[in-house]
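Quick one, T. Sequence first:
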Amino acid sequence: MEIIQLWPTMESAGTGNPADDFAPYLETHLIEDDAAPRGAVLVCPGGGYCWRAPHEATPIAKKFNELGFHAFVVYYRVAPYRHPAPLRDALRAIRIIRSRAAEWKVNGDQIAILGFSAGGHLTASAGTLYETVNVDAGDAADNYPVRPDALIPCYAVINLTSPFGHAGSGENLLGTKFSLPSAEEFNLENQVSANTPPTFLWHTADDPVVNIQNSIAFATALWQHKVTAELHVFPHGPHGIGLAEEYPDAKIWPELAATFLINSCKFAAHR
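Structure tokens:
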């Protein structure tokens, strides 16, 4: 495993408290073998844009290694950092992976981004808002595209402001700007276009924290724009279940997601 700082210098959180400053980084989980290059999954842990849940980080990367993919975890900036910091971090991570694809035996056009809850909002942002932020760092990685090749939002926050939206994530992401009409720009079902990458979504129907309507709205928008999308709704399960190993219905989701990447997105995977 290698730890890679995303940016040449650390940007202050702007609070005046050095303890709030955070240097985002990329954690690699590469499969060491002689197989041909394979697809990769970049994992964004959830946490309401105020922390990064450990059970939605390394364990997810290891599971996708088992399924035949290289994997990475991006430890992106959260509150008191505000937008665009998390999105810049996620897109910069994609650029770094592409810039080292030959070294790591990654197919540079087979990079999926996967995220949970607010990390799912970040995932969906990477697939819809990738042209709206500056991700340049002044190095060779700047020459690589930032658009991911597939999205895997897991019990994702998609909407911030409507009755089914998740206001807490919005407040952490946008700060005082959350009360402005511009916050609606981050209701991502309205940002879908024909250029949004193919998407695999899953949610539990009775999630008490992030309403199932988030995933339904995003999937519906994708289908309306003729984007390949697959949505799985499992009947029961609390929020934040990660690999869902204790939930017989939902625990199949990683295998379903892997099948989607292989069959619908033509990713290479070697087990």
